[in-house]
Amino acid sequence: MKASLLLLFVAVRRTFGTANPTLQWDPETAKDCAEWYNNSDGELCEDVRSLFGITPVEFHQWNPSVGLDCQPWDYQSYCIVTWEKINNTVTTTTSSSSTTTVSTTTAVTPGPSPTSWNDMGCYADDPVLPILEKNFSPAGGDAALSIPKCKTTCYRRAYSFAGLEGGNQCWCSSYVGGEWASNQTDCNIPCTGDSKTFCGGKGLVNVFKAEQNAETTSTTTGTSSATATTPTIGGSQTTGATRILAMF
Fold first, then answer.
1. Closest CA to 20 of 33, 6, 8, 4
2. Are 198 and 147 in contact (CB under 8 A)?
3. Rounded Cα–Cα distance for residues 88 and 74 (Å)
4. Which residues in the chain show pLDDT less than 70?
5. Do 218 and 227 meet the contact criterion of CB atoms below 8 Å apart?
6. Which pLDDT score is estimated for 89?
């Protein structure tokens, strides 16, 4: 059940949220905002908070221009989750039997990204038909891009592949439709947010594939057994492509 709810949560974010604001926004908005809601459809502020599971206090902290009473509510972009919130998310489930026996299972949600990513290498991009589906960086590129940031961006939107290009672009996809670069060392442009690592090259993409998360751990106490189970969420998904797939 929790797995289904988390997947639904990701799907809702992917449908209604964007990685960057598309309307004007308050400059006092949280600097580590990870997802934005663009208020262009006339939705009520209270409905938006409810849809994304945001408390009035959280929404005000992330969007200081909006009071706890949801006023004023303007035609602009608002932050609906921060990286701090994502990285601190922990899910704990506790249940008890009809006797005095108590069983507890604790599972940490897949933080900002899966426990493992597979480096697939440097790929040559196609300017007409990009090898990955969608670029989530703002126009002109992300001035603070890093490999972990791009992986998190893609994983939270339920994509299996993350790609970094030109030092400042983050691409996400459910497939890889292209070929390796003839020289793998050409993906050598430093990331704008971490100069010690490389984020692709000119017309070249460093591609990573999300692998499955580790299993949850559980502890049981009491005189008889009654176990509550919280499933983990896998980071990978089965996908197809109409172009040349990278098979690994």
1. 33
2. no
3. 29
4. 1-16, 89-115, 212-248
5. yes
6. 62
